Amino acid sequence: MNNGVTLNTGVAGFIGYHLCQKLLQNGENIIGLDNLNSYYDIELKRARLNELGIVKSQDLTYNTLIDSVKEQHFQFINLDISDRENLPLLFQSKKINRVVNLAAQAGVRYSIEAPFSYVDSNLVGFLNILECCRNFNIQKLVYASSSSVYGDDNNLPFNEQSKEIKQKSFYAVTKRANELMAQCYSDLYGLKAIGLRFFTVYGPWGRPDMAPILFANAILNDQEIKVFNNGNLSRDFTYIDDIINGIVATLSAQTKTNHTLLNIGCGSPTKLLDFISVLEEALGKKAQKKLVPMQKGDVYKTWTDISQLKSLTGYIPQVKLKEGIGKFIKWYLTYTTSNKVNKI
Fold it and tell me: Which of 171, 202, 239, 315 is catalytic?
């Protein structure tokens, strides 16, 4: 257990929220940071924070630490990681000794429409995190990269040592840049950092711009779902609990080098049409599928080699797709019913 303070950025996001819950269960002292941007429904972000004891009715004034009413060891701050004045002051005042940086502008497709938002958050913001880690002697930084850095690498499964990666979206470029930036800071300043290349995470409290919620919304509301590349896509779908267990394991992992890149996923690709079939079974309703061409920035297949993470931490994914989708749908139906909405 960490006796200091862990900064969990992106805490109102999908992975950040689940990680915070797990770390609190482990008795950690957590400061959760998020800028609560409007990329998707802020109500969902506030609902996640509400589960952590930052009540929905509370005014979340910018750059103000708020105590959880539920968790003794949790505080939240509404702050942007690109804020070069206030982020260092937070590090200085709270004696942070570990950072898990999950804050980022997400979304492959949105990066084509709004590239500057990715520069602000994923490049400027990440540099600000690195500078704070350097200046305040942070023991370890674990940060989110993405499977999208591989592009359509022909060497399957994707391996961290691959030399043929070529990013296909600006989002992927910013994530690859993060890896290079972290490597540079590790080389120059001895920063201990682990970059995690996430593979298609799904589960309760997921992002509404990703396939599980998009498809569930459409199926239940008798709307068409767009199936890109006529369904000829595969993804390494990974349940959120497996991802969280992997992140937590890396926080205490002893690596041979200061900077390490690790794949974190299921290690078993699923065809998109098979994924939809599992969703249909869980919902008890057939999808209205509209087969459409491939879209810009997307890749045909993701499949991760998790042997390096397994060797380092003992990581073994536990949740199979059918079980994971069942848990996701149970949450989805409960959330939409309790919030009296027919979709998120």
Answer: 171
